[in-house]
């Protein structure tokens, strides 16, 4: 089934990413906004609502992980559509590095978060379902993972900002089709 979907995907790729790739990109973007917002604004909610806010954050993280892995597999099978006009090799190299950082970051962040939640040794929820947890908490591991998770999440602000700035530079300064390749298709 996956092979058939990837075949169909390849047939429709031209000067834009496929609808599936575009959809995953923007869905991940929205999930990242919700995940970050849940943590940034959790202090505004009463303590009784914090488990719900945490579940929203974790559920978004799991969704991001699944979508980023799917997107990576699709990207490995189908190369990016060409940028017109073709950028200088240095810009292409920087773009590849930037995308690698994005993939690594938004795959590593949820994995670290999940391992951290598991090692807390108490019930936690994702999508309204109780998730497995360690029989005995490992607070040293939890503290280390929490530090990594928060550091990478803070790095995420910078990476997202650079990614958005690069897309806008391509569109307005270099006047190529980089940004347009990821924009949803217009309905006719």
Structural class: mainly alpha
Strand order of the largest sheet: 1-2
Predict the CATH topology. Answer: Fumarate Reductase Cytochrome B subunit
Helix segment count? Answer: 5
Task: Give an overview of the whole structure.
Keywords: Cell membrane, Electron transport, Heme, Iron, Membrane, Metal-binding, Transmembrane, Transmembrane helix, Transport. One of its GO terms (biological process) is respiratory electron transport chain. Its cofactor is heme b. It contains five helices and two strands. It is mainly α and 188 residues long. The protein has a single domain (15-180), classed as Fumarate Reductase Cytochrome B subunit, CATH 1.20.950. A hairpin with a 2-residue loop joins strand 1 (124-126) and strand 2 (129-131).
Q: Helix and strand layout, with pairings?
A:
Elements: H1 2-11, H2 19-40, H3 50-77, H4 89-119, E1 124-126, E2 129-131, H5 139-173
Antiparallel strand pairs: 1-2
Question: What's a quick, concise take on this entry?
Answer:
This protein has 188 residues and is mainly alpha-helical. It has 5 helices and 2 strands, in the order ααααββα.
